């Protein structure tokens, strides 16, 4: 009998009986991989289908207090005030960025609170985990370690130990023996995650899964992996820099707009309670092309420095480089400057950088980016005690942004005494003592102000 195989899309998990060049679901090209089909079970459920009934939503009782603190207020905020009982959480990030380190620190705190924790590693031996743990500190006996890659063995150990929380490091090393493909393949990752999801929901165990990422920054394996879990967290930041950012891209139990900021030290990851002060450390004073702006990450305002350098090109085509901001957004704003202000930017190379390695996508940074480019072009420094934010339209108008008061209060707290904002935002603001608020309607007004 011929062995049946299926083809899966790496991006969305779409199944097909034959290989397809372009996925019909997500339109990705060349993402189909072959995997053997699992045998379908013919055993019928022991439950009586006539005993199953629907329940009114008002009859469902929930316990909002059943959340476990991770020991990090930054991580608790991203998760939505703590770890939910029975939740399946996926953490992705570049190699060496600190995924295993922070999870070991979380296990330490949960174990010290009296709960049973099981740390399962498929990449390190028990001695290697112990060496890494010695840098962090002393651990409670409630933390148990297991070095195993077979999912069948892992399931039996979890059923025997019955921990309150478990960590799988990493899902790409785990395999099921009844699936013939190699660990890390589409079918192995998908089936292993599905088994862990059933364990988490059936036994009420909170499970953290570590996932490797591809060169594009997405979790390796099928995109359906992200759909199966309850929470998806990404570790961001340069591995050679000291700070790390945890960002929630999916959360069934909280907001997806929050971020947590950490600093990597010898003893592990340490929380950064004031990220704005941390990001502005060492910034140049009264230097051209340097502007401070305020971004909103969920409910938290963060001040970052936008740097721009405009130099006359020596070649026929001007060069553009953007680090931390969208390259196309930089080109768009430079076209607006040239058209609305008459500044010949096409003859100038432009280099834009967000200091500290932050990745910025909020439109509120447009006004600061334009100000930095104009400042560098004219070689005229903007007052170092001034903060600028607002969205720039194609006709040169300055559009309003959200949560203006929170941004201004954060700037005031860090010693800034002048704030340039969209004019429509200034009309809706109450009087704030200790900081001058300047409203601008267009780029022409902005040039006059700065």
What does this structure look like?
It is a single chain. By secondary structure, this protein is α/β, with parallel strands linked by helices. The protein is 27% helix and 26% strand. It has twelve helices and 23 strands. It has helices at 73-79, 99-112, 126-136, 151-161, 186-203, 224-228, 275-279, 327-341, 366-378, 404-413, 423-427, 443-449; strands at residues 5-9, 15-16, 32-36, 67-68, 83-84, 88-92, 117-121, 143-147, 165-169, 206-211, 231-236, 243-251, 259-265, 268-271, 290-297, 300-312, 320-323, 348-354, 386-388, 391-392, 398-399, 418-422, 436-440. The strands form six sheets. It has a nine-stranded mixed sheet, with helices on both faces. A four-stranded mixed sheet has the order 15-16-18-17. Strand 11 and strand 12 form a beta hairpin. Helix 8 crosses helix 9. The protein is globular and about 75 Å long.
